Amino acid sequence: HAPVVVDEPLHLFGENTAPAPGEVVLSALGGCLAVGITAVATWKGVPLSKLEIFLEGYIGNPAAWGAGGAQKAPPEMGFQAIRVKVVIEGDATREALDEIVQHANRYSPVANSMRNPVAFEIGLA
């Protein structure tokens, strides 16, 4: 795969030429949900005619990652809230479509990685 290019807005020392890393995270979540919704709909025999996913997140981001003197504890940083709106149309009732969306959400690896604590280590290679 091609490298994923990221940047930051000007106020975070970036040039605003590409999505910020947090936006890429939301994109990954939206992509995972879209794949899952499509798979569940196919499994249930429900043809979809429209699928759009809108994501919005509130991220606690200290100025320049704490380098500018802003001190925050880890729970204050990162996404504090994420909202997902799914526009879906297909050959099923609204209730059946909602069941497809909820099923995909429940089994989404990316959504579950964001909801659940994850063991995380970092070090030099």
Question: Over the alpha carbons, how many angstroms does the gyration radius reach?
Answer: 18 Å
- Beta content: 15-25%
Look at the helices and sheets and give the structural class: alpha+beta
Mean pLDDT: 92
Low-confidence stretches: none
What kind of sheet is the major sheet?
2 strands, antiparallel
* SSE ordering: HEEHH
Chain oligomer state: single chain
* Helical segment count: 3
User: Main sheet: which strands, in order across?
Assistant: 1-2
The end-to-end span amounts to 22 Å
What characteristic shape results from the CA principal axes?
A: elongated
Helix content: 25-40%
Number of strands: 2
3D architecture notes:
The chain has 125 residues and is of the alpha+beta class. Helices cover 35% and strands 21% of the residues. The protein has three helices and two strands. It has helices at 21-43, 94-107, 109-115; strands spanning 48-60, 78-90. It has a two-stranded antiparallel ribbon with strand order 1-2. It starts with 20 loop residues before the first helix and ends in a 10-residue tail after the last helix. The mean pLDDT is 92.
